[in-house]
Amino acid sequence: MTTLWQSLLIALRALRVNKMRALLTMLGIIIGIAAVIAMVAIGSGASKMISDQISSIGSNLLLVLPGSVTSGGMRSGSGGTQTLTYDDARAIKAECPSVAAVAPNVRGSGQVVYGNQNWSTVVYGVTPEMVDVRDWTIIAGRNITQSDVDGATKNCLIGQTVADNLFGGTDPVGKIIRIKKIPFTVVGLLGRKGQSPQGQDQDDVIYVPLRTAQRKLLGSQFPNVVGSIMVQAKDAEVLDKAEEEVTELLNQRHRIGPNREVDYTIRNLSELLAVTEQSSKVMSILLGAVASISLVVGGIGIMNIMLVSVTERTREIGIRIAIGAKKRDILLQFLTEAVLLTTCGGVIGMLLGVAGAKLVASFIGWPTLISVNTIVIAFAFSAGVGVFFGFYPARKAASLNPIDALRYE
Amino acid sequence: MDEVVRLTDVVKIYTMGEERVEAMKGVSFTVHRGAFVSIMGASGSGKSTCMNILGCLDVPTRGSYFLDGVDVGKLSADALAEVRNKKLGFVFQGFNLLARTTARQNVELPLVYAQIPAAERRARAMEALERVGLAGREGHYSNQLSGGQQQRVAIARALVNRPSIILADEPTGNLDSRTTVEIMSIFQELNRQGITIIMVTHEPEVAEFTSRHIIFRDGLVISDQPFQAKTAVPPAEVQQ
């Protein structure tokens, strides 16, 4: 039996002899693989874009909101009461083992002034953890600190949109702005996040220390109350556990029992992520499936040409058998030829697919995601197509009768 | 003298659809090492069938065929392939070289299937080409060679695995008379070196260069005579 290497050399020679035909035969596989790669790249790029958008809220997050209260038979909606406190937040942080960080916050809005510019924006009172929980980066200056919170200092972080509107291109760090006429020092500038999945501009924001907001800016009647608490679990696996722990703790602290309705709600933000990811995954599988039909068509093209080639080379096969080639040798030779065709087609298709994906992506502004996995699978698949569709012609060649084959004109 | 070939009562029956064709009706003969035999007969006499059986491309329906003492009729397909590879060398009427392949690559082909390493293949192919007077032509493609040269490449290919017998099926059928003599002189030279040659031909003047004539008619051997072979003198100027 000849070695694989010999078969490869023979196959290469055979393909070189018929370059144009080899190219045309490969075309089916080229288009098939290119389509699969491009579709999967664009599909997973789109799904990555969506999940990036969602995770820009922050990852592994629970959102604890005040619940409704019943007063004289009337129930207020969610958030219609102020039941969560800074102490709740600290208790969650201290007592729930699955929780990594807790970011209580209060929300208000106000007019901000710097020099002759002014801008209306959302002001949050936060603790330093907010930056971690929401995955913000600070591109200039520093984060606010716990002592800023404890001391209710008039320092603030501003988002890119606010910076653009108040400062134009100049460096905002160290400048004094007035929020609702109270002077604040800008200590840090937040990196750009872009739109939230709901289409809100996440960069149109100012963060001030929680205590400062509670006492000086928003003038709440209960100074310890917070608007919501963001809870970040240690990782995605313990998110549900973290939810249970927070629920248990808050039930205890708020004395929730048979006679007292639950006065808070917990939202699990990763559910949204999971649903969206699921739907975009289905989308890219669908695209991939449609594209792989063209692969199958390409494979049939290979089989067709290989059959023609076997007929054409009947005499050559006869010579080889007469000279001492075994059935396996002939089988291997034609199989190698088919696999060589499809893998060459696969490689060319891969390059075209990657290029195509990049091109499409640059037109519609989506990111593309080409994983090593896709490439490996496409390559293996094209080789598999070669084996599958090459087998029948190769077997036909191997089972030729040498006497007839030698006499074949 | 030891026997290379022993055919005993070989019968070969083909069925073509409804029709049964009895191509060989009980053929027996032996060939000794170093012989130069020609098998003659009209078309349909069974000489080609006999050649296919001698060449292990086909097996007898009945009877036995011993090649170098091995009962070839009892071998598997793979074992037959090995016998063809190691013990037999074929020379065909239509040369049957691989197209778009150099002379050396053609000659190397049996060695490829014998799994001989590349360096040794090359050396043995060159040696075989030299024996048939084609040294220096190893890089030529089949279509760049004349008919006589192509047949010499085919002879080199038949030689290269040092076979027990060379089987030649009408080796001069496609050649002019001058080239025919050239090829026959090569066969005679190889035969002098001890190689057994069995040749099928229907041209008596070609058979004259061999030392034994077996004549077939209607699937039977009707004559088997030794012959005083004529020496083939190649044309004065050697074709290069």
From TrEMBL, chain A:
It comes from the Bacteria. Residues 23-248 form the MacB-like periplasmic core domain. Residues 290-402 form the ABC3 transporter permease C-terminal domain. It is a multi-pass membrane protein. The keyword Transmembrane applies. The chain crosses the membrane at residues 21-42, 285-310, 331-357, 369-392. Keywords: Cell membrane, Membrane, Transmembrane, Transmembrane helix. Coiled coil: none annotated. It is found in: Cell membrane. Belongs to the ABC-4 integral membrane protein family. This is ABC transporter permease.
